[in-house]
What does this fold into?
Amino acid sequence: MSKFKLMFKWKVALLILAAILFQNCDSPSESMDEAKEKAPIQIVTLDPGHFHAGLIHKSMYSEVDSTIHVYAPEGEELRDYLTRIAGYNKREENPTSWNVEVYTGDDFLQEMIKEKAGNVMVVAGKNDRKIDYILSALENDMNVYADKPLVINPAGFQKLKRAFEIAKEKNLLFYDIMTERFEISTILQRELSMTPEVFGTLEQGTLENPAITKESVHHFFKYVSGAPLVRPEWFFDTEIEGSGLVDVTTHLVDLVQWESFPGEALDTSDVNMLQAELLPTSLNYEQYQLVTGKTPPFAEGETLDVLANGEMNYTLKGVHAKVSVKWAYQAPEGTADTHYSIMRGTKANLIIRQGQEENYKPILYVKLFENQEEALQKAVNEDLQSAYPGISLTKLENGEFRIEVPDSYSVGHEAHFAQVTENYLKFFKAGKMPDWEVPNMIVKYYTTTQAYAKAQ
It folds into this structure.
């Protein structure tokens, strides 16, 4: 090992030890042979610029080696990532036991490839260069587990298609982290949409009245793992982070596909982008300073306009869909990020609301058009109860039905990362994913980048 590498590893270890008493940094490192014997998956984290990179380590996994090999430039983003891991190690309830080996330097990508200290690269950070990191990993026989979005423009989409070709040629597992598939209200909406006695079939809809709508509201200032989230300055540069049509929309487009055509492989020819629009959210001097911890690059009295809001209307296999994402600075007291969704069927509408009446928790409602209450009761109390014990049905005064879900199913956004990771580990162990996953990932990013191109 070079003196340069040792110097940087020791420097980072000292900084973390002094700041947060990071544990296990001075324990002897295992050899690669020993690590491979210990667990089938060794994670390499590259340039962790987004807090999602740390969230997958909020839990331990028996198939994953306890040593994380990190390659990144030195700076606040790396320190935030390491602080987050240390916090999980030190918490009183169910502490983790991650060991972290860090390499810092301008050649962090080249060093990761040279050392090949693991077989799965995790990446979450600057979205403009993420696809290049992914290509480097795949070309050097490393599996990839990546935070969304994988790409943010049509040029990136062309690289993405090549990445999937390489993964197929080398029999590598390349997957993005779709946490929202594990939200219980969305799961139940999908399940009921596949019950023809209740839902009928999905309407085709129109541009003005889509068959399926997904809308979400997010906030720049929020709390993560109990602490205020500090956003990196590049988060507000849409050339790096991506605009409001290619970032959070990735989740919503994924859900449109996952719910409207469950288990079906889609093709880019199935997508027809009709309309797409970008609008800004303005941050004033004080807001920017608070959320980044930095001096704003603009004068007091001025604002920074971030093209974070996006809306797209398109058809997928002839079905009209609408996806909308809005960003505000901070949620009003007592509120949070919210989600709204409706699937319109020939016999019923399935509606997810997350407003004040729901105490800002996503709740699924069913609006029946025909006399199929008995079919709904059977679907919930018999069919769904077997998979999700404890759920029930309440009829409301307005004629709608509310699906009651025990709190144990509402684990929250952060816990979904462990659920997605466990899913990835199942795929890794099986050596394959469902046949529809890769085609639908390609269609998903084709949709978002087509919306971006349309809005230009």
